[in-house]
């Protein structure tokens, strides 16, 4: 005689909803609600958003943001910025025929021990020669290294992402120096990626550190 089937457990109902918040430098806004069976399963999770969801300006929808779960307090999930990037369509819209694009990719460590890879892009108004491109990349590096040396990761993130909106910060500082080398249409941090976190963080952040290093 076969056994009667046991009661099927509804795994979905067993999950609890957690509210995801942006870091303080993005206003501590609630950007997502995610179901999970326990807070220990959240460490290392990445939540995708856009700058539009933070500023409310539709023109900022072209900037994607990736938030890494750092700490869980009850049902509140605190995050930090794992990285950001221009959307492919937005980057393509910046290209003009007969002009030059200058890219620079740099690895820097902030004064509080966060290491991040930053990709800067510049679009000139016309063609620029190799010497000018090298000079612009040198300015990119010098500005980023100086920023990292004097800013925390929170402050650097604010300047990289929100600075492009406020016409101040990393992109603006590079532009003001590089425009002396060649006429420019646009300079901005098109992409960033957090590579490693400092030691001495919470248990959740320690797991997140492993996730960052493995990515």
What structural category arises from helix and sheet content? alpha+beta
**Gyration radius from CA atoms, angstroms:** 21 Å
Q: Which term fits the overall shape?
A: elongated
What would CATH call the class of the largest domain?
Alpha Beta
Number of strands: 8
Outline the secondary-structure elements.
Elements: H1 11-14, E1 16-21, E2 30-36, E3 46-50, H2 52-55, E4 63-73, E5 76-86, H3 88-93, E6 101-109, E7 115-124, H4 130-150, H5 153-166, H6 170-178, E8 184-196, H7 203-214
Parallel strand pairs: 1-5
Antiparallel strand pairs: 1-2, 3-4, 4-5, 5-8, 6-7, 7-8
Helix pairs in contact: 4-6
Question: What descriptors fit this protein?
Answer:
single chain; 215 residues; alpha+beta; Tetrahydropterin Synthase, Chain A; 2 domains; eight-stranded mixed β-sheet; 8 strands; 33% helix; 33% strand
């Amino acid at each position: 005689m076969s056994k009667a089937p046991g009661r099927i457990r509804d795994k979905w109902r067993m999950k609890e909803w957690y509210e995801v918040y942006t870091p303080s430098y993005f206003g501590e806004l609630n950007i997502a609600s995610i179901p999970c069976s326990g807070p220990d399963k959240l460490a290392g999770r990445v939540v995708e958003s856009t700058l539009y969801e933070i500023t409310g300006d539709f023109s900022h929808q072209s900037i994607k943001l990736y938030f890494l779960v750092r700490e869980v307090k009850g049902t509140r999930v605190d995050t930090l910025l794992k990285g950001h990037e221009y959307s492919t369509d937005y980057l393509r819209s910046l290209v003009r025929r007969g002009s030059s694009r200058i890219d620079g990719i740099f690895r820097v460590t902030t004064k509080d021990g966060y290491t991040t890879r930053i990709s800067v892009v510049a679009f000139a108004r016309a063609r620029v020669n190799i010497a000018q491109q090298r000079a612009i990349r040198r300015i990119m590096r010098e500005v980023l290294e100086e920023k990292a040396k004097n800013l925390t990761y929170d402050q650097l993130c604010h300047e990289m992402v929100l600075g492009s909106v406020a016409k101040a910060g990393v992109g603006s500082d590079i532009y003001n120096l590089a425009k002396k080398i060649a006429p420019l249409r646009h300079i901005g941090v098109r992409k960033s990626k957090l590579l490693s976190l400092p030691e001495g963080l919470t248990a959740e952040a320690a797991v997140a550190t492993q996730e960052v290093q493995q990515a």
